[in-house]
Specification:
Two copies of one chain form a homodimer. The first copy, chain A, is 42% helix and 21% strand. The first copy, chain A, is of the alpha+beta class. In chain A, the strands form three sheets. Chain A has a nine-stranded mixed beta sheet, with helices on both faces. Chain A has a five-stranded mixed beta sheet with strand order 14-13-15-16-17, sandwiched between helices. In chain A, strands 2-4-3 form a three-stranded antiparallel beta sheet. The interface between A and B is large, with 76 and 75 residues.
């Protein structure tokens, strides 16, 4: 069983607060869909094959249930079922989920994602807002080398359909799946695999070459125009809108196609340019076809999900892992007669929002000082007979070693000003 | 499937941030134990009967797993397995869990708890610190009418053992269980139920009467002394320590015995005096015997868990449910030519941490103003031809209806000062 230990959780918490702060600025409402879904709901998107990759079971009433594998399905089910909601609606979530696949680097069976979706807007401005939101999430987190690679499944489909001279949807989907594998396999492996499925080798080569189109928006759009492609409106308007929003770290990439059962328009992924080996830190796009599965073909949808474990790795790698902690004050006592005044002082400081530790077990003063030092306390406040009889304590600055005497009545205000 | 909708989650988030703030002051480290445990781990505490009350299943490798039903078992398993940890250690967690029982008021199959534990200290000061922490959590949340009722299972056991003149552990446990039911059943029901189990009616009456001992610490301790009970040291030292910590809202109650497979010393529950019908909002105590189940009889343990759903009900009832939100600025445009400048302005404001909404779908100005009003925007900034040509916008104060013109370059600094 994997636990999220304090060091892991400190990072997770930083990623979480940053996410909550930024989504609030953009007007997203935080919620959490049920972690347990009917198996049929989870299969709705991806078909029964998904049950190989998730945890599922029967409850005591015989219902087939499964643990959620993402937050998008649950949020979509929620919005689809609630016809009373005013649209468009912006929802977000930060929580954990489960997949029953083989754990690998940065990938676990139990993991956290953040997720933000806009339901009920067909406008390309909604896609632009999702991408701007994503960018600000990474920017405020301090990951300044993030690149957003954007594709459009409709454009790729147009190209594939034309080159393959077919309307066989299965073959077209296969070709798109092949593109999704370019980063994981060699080109020859892919060509061989899909030759077996009936896709001609030279056509597959051309498609893979098309998938390698990647560069600045204007260059790629010109190149797509030169190839005679028609469905470029969305990409053109999207990149204009992102430019208006002041975003400079945008590339267009025809190799970005993403989860194929899911997305059906603009798609994008976020990479840390200095750590591309981690894989995409976040990804998203338009998925208008998913609400249709829940009887809401009228409901447009676009969104993004970020992988918390991978983002944590990226933060650690750039040395941004350590959060700023509240300074620690350690209250020590010279002997057991002073446990009670020490308790009273610690209690008083904590009531004033100051982070305080003191010994619960009756250690001698030397041991207490060692503990204070190991905890990186900023000051140790020592209660000792002579000073206490004068209503004072000794305050030792643990950084430079100096000691001063302070009147007990002044401690709170002095610390509030100095910690 | 129960979803935590935005209104629920706003409250949960407030309870969560408050918990994180207060536990930090007390030096607890936030973590999260695995949500899925081996079934044998979950049964370790409560025996196989627990499987009737939880979700459990076999994974694809045939292992018997269960969803956690609390955070204490996971945290204890974690600490018990990690002999490298420096003790005492203070850990806390805020997360969700599952129980497969019948949902009732304030009780769901999927629910959230906060949890804080101190491992490795046998000192009564650790119990006192847990209770002080609990008190500050409720105090800072604004629930000012909370009463902490404290019992000691060792004292109750001493009484029961003496009155029943038995060392039959099963009978003694039965009598304690009976006490735990006083709030849920009538006294006659309990007497009848336990008569069947072999506990004499007049003895049961005396035990229930003992369980009704409830009042100010000094009064109850005197009364326990008068009854000739011996094991009063812990209660005496605990109430002294809580007094030193400035806590006034403490009662001793011999009817508090709590989860019987679990606790073995000081136990306590927190009630909202104005809303006792909600039941205990939090409860805890010493559970030194649980680490022993994980091969660590050396590891002392004391802690507390709070029920987030019940606390949310208490907050709602006292009208403390509404959080303070960031003020909203709505950016509106007079016609579609101004969508781009509106987008640029919204983007600029958001980069400065200001919460902004604007229309994604091309509504006319009147509709935009209606939306702004329904969202309770504080100001609407209107981009219109004449003003825009002078590099100005119209700012409408939605509270008093006044309008002023503002230079576009001044908007950010003006809003930062006024929002």
């Amino acid at each position: 069983m994997r636990d999220l230990e304090p060091e892991d959780f400190e990072l997770l918490e930083r990623i979480r607060s940053n996410f909550i702060e930024v989504t609030k600025i953009f007007g997203f409402k935080l919620m959490e869909p049920s972690p347990i879904e009917l198996l049929s709901t989870l299969e709705a998107k991806s078909g029964p094959a998904i049950s190989n990759e998730i945890y599922y079971f029967k409850d005591k009433a015989g219902r087939e249930l499964g643990l959620r594998f993402d937050l998008t399905v649950g949020l979509t089910r929620f919005v689809a079922s609630r016809r009373d909601l005013q649209l468009p609606i912006k929802l977000c979530s930060f929580s954990s989920m489960w997949r029953y696949d083989e754990p690998q680097f940065g990938r676990y069976r139990w993991f956290y994602q953040w997720d933000a979706e806009i339901f009920g807007s067909k406008s390309i401005e909604a896609d632009a807002e999702i991408i701007e939101l994503t960018n600000m999430i990474f920017d405020k987190l301090g990951l300044k080398n993030c690149i957003i690679e954007i594709g459009d499944r409709k454009v790729v489909e147009e190209y594939v359909r034309r080159e393959m001279k077919t309307n066989d949807e299965r073959l077209i989907l296969d070709a798109l799946r092949a593109l999704d594998k370019v980063k994981k396999k060699t080109i020859q492996q892919i060509i061989d695999e899909y030759a077996d499925k009936g896709i001609n080798e030279s056509i597959m080569s051309k498609i893979i070459e098309f998938g390698n189109l990647r560069g600045k928006p204007d260059d790629i759009i010109n190149s797509l125009k030169e190839q005679g492609l028609q469905n470029l409106d969305n990409l053109i308007r999207l990149t204009e809108s992102l430019d208006t929003r002041g975003m400079k770290n945008v590339l267009l990439s025809m190799g970005i196609v993403r989860g194929l059962d899911y997305y059906d328009g603009i798609v994008f992924e976020v990479f840390d340019e200095k750590n591309t080996d981690i894989g995409a830190l976040a990804g998203g796009g338009r998925f208008d076809s998913l609400p249709a599965v829940f009887d809401r073909p009228d409901l447009a949808a676009t969104g993004v999900a970020g992988g918390v474990e991978r983002i944590a790795i990226a933060l650690s790698k750039m040395g941004k892992a350590k959060s700023e902690e509240l300074s620690l004050i350690y209250v020590a006592y010279a002997n057991k007669d002073f446990i009670k005044p020490a308790t009273r002082l610690a209690s008083e400081l904590r009531k004033n929002g100051i982070r305080v530790e003191y010994d619960l077990s009756g250690k001698n003063l030397k041991k207490q000082m060692e503990v204070a030092s190991s905890l990186n306390a900023k000051y140790v406040l020592i209660l000792a007979p002579r000073e206490y009889s004068q209503k004072k304590i000794v305050a030792k600055n643990m950084i430079n070693g100096t000691e001063v005497q302070i009147r007990i009545d002044d401690i709170v205000s002095l610390l509030k000003a100095n910690v």
